[in-house]
Structures are given as structure tokens and as C-alpha cells.
Amino acid sequence: MNAVDLNCDLGESYGCYTIGMDEAVIPYVTSVNVACGWHAGDPLIMDKTVRLAKMHGVAVGAHPGFPDLMGFGRRPMTVSSEEAGAYVKYQVGALMAFAKGQGLTLQHVKPHGALYNMAAKDEALARGICEGIASIDEDLIFMGLAGSVMLEVAEQIGLKTASEVFADRAYNDDGSLVSRKLPGAVIHDSRLAVERAVKMVRDGKVVSINGKEISIKADSICVHGDNEQAVKLVRDIRQALKAADIEVRSLKQ
């Protein structure tokens, strides 16, 4: 039987601003990527999100990004490999404290936004991130874009890896994600997202924005928590995976 993790980016509210539908989404996922305060989230939100994950028996991962609250971490920054490693250690360490306070350990680390997309192609940046993670806990799973440089680097360093695919994002022909600045980058049609999710896990294939079928490895499927269709997407995807005889479970299982 095929098996896959279903993850969502949560804890991205900040102060008096609410982003995402965390409480409605979390019952349907098996892992969550919790914002660590730099692109979104704050100490109270981090604590609340970890507590929510514990309540639902969902695995917790850190979602570190660039220090860019105003841009939600989606704007590229020029940083050295050493800086990237330090940024990640700072954020992962913070979330580790909240997890420990709830009697939990972190399962994985998944970079956010521009940090994620840049590290998918930039070997030096990816190495800084991965070395930062390994210096904290070599048992942490590195979650990154399927088929990307960042996963190759993580494996070289000795980290366990998880190839991530996106049900609600469009792909370029080379397997990278279509820029959010372009039309069609985010998929809101639940039916289409469900079809893509099942096809990626069962067949190892996804159709690019140009209509090209490309190969892809799916260890974990992501649905973005700030997608207005997030609840419907995770619910429908989980039901479809079950109907296709695909087990949905966290990476650590």
C-alpha cells in the first residue's frame, strides 16, 4: 500500500491579525509546519499551534523563513550560507522550546517562502540551512521541494529527507513552483487539486502549467493554510487518498 504525509503551514497569524483556518484544517492533516516568528507567528501563536497539534495527535515541524514580516517571507534576500544557518537555528530552537513545553519533539524542518524557493536551486544556501539543522538535531527530517538541490544537499550532510509536493500550486516544466506573481500559480479548484494529489502519490507524475507530464516523488503533500479553500482541500484530498487505498500518515510513522 502506498503511504503519504499530508501537511499544512499553520501558526501564521500575528498579534491581532488572523491568517488561515488552523483549527478547522488540523483535524485532516498528519503534520504541521509552524511559523517561527520571522515571516509570521509570534510566541503566543506558536504555543497555541503546538498545543493544538498535540490535541489532534499531529506531528510538529518548524517553518523558518527570512526575517520579513511585512513581506510574509516571500521576498528574496541576499544572505550568506552562515547567515542562513544561524537564521534557521534561531527559529527552530524557539519552536523546540514550545514543543518541549508540551512534551513533544519536533519531527521536521521545512523552510518557508523565498528561503524555500531559493534553497531549492542555490546549493550554498541549502547547505547553510541543512548544516544549521544538523547542528541542532541530526534526527530532524528535512522537508523540501521534490527533486530539488536542497534535498540533495540534505542527503549529503546525512539528514533524513522528505520530498514535498503541492496539491494547490502549479509546477513549471523543470519541477519548480510557478511564481505567485503569475496567473494560475495557486490552484483553488478542489477537484483539480484532489486529482493532482492522487496522481502524484500513485503514479509519481504531475502535469506542469504548460501541460507537460513530469516525474515527481511524493513523501508529503502540502496544502497552504492561507489558501481560502484550505479546509475543503485537505478534507477532500484525505478522502480521495483513502478511496485510492493510499494510507495517510505522518513522516515519523
What share of residues is helical? 25-40%
Give the C-alpha Rg: 17 Å
Q: Distance between termini?
A: 14 Å
Morphology call: globular
Describe the sheet with the most strands: 7 strands, parallel, barrel
Walk me through what this model shows.
38% of the residues lie in helices and 18% in strands. It has 253 residues and is α/β, with parallel strands linked by helices. Strands 1-2-3-4-5-6-9 form a seven-stranded parallel β-barrel, surrounded by five helices. α3 packs parallel to α5 (123-136) and α7 (190-203) crosses α8 (230-243). The protein is globular and about 40 Å long.
Indicate the topology.
Blueprint: E1 3-10, H1 22-25, E2 31-35, H2 43-56, E3 59-63, H3 81-101, E4 108-109, H4 113-119, H5 123-136, E5 141-145, H6 149-157, E6 160-166, H7 190-203, E7 205-207, E8 213-215, E9 220-224, H8 230-243, E10 247-248
Parallel strand pairs: 1-2, 1-9, 1-10, 2-3, 3-4, 4-5, 5-6, 6-9
Antiparallel strand pairs: 7-8
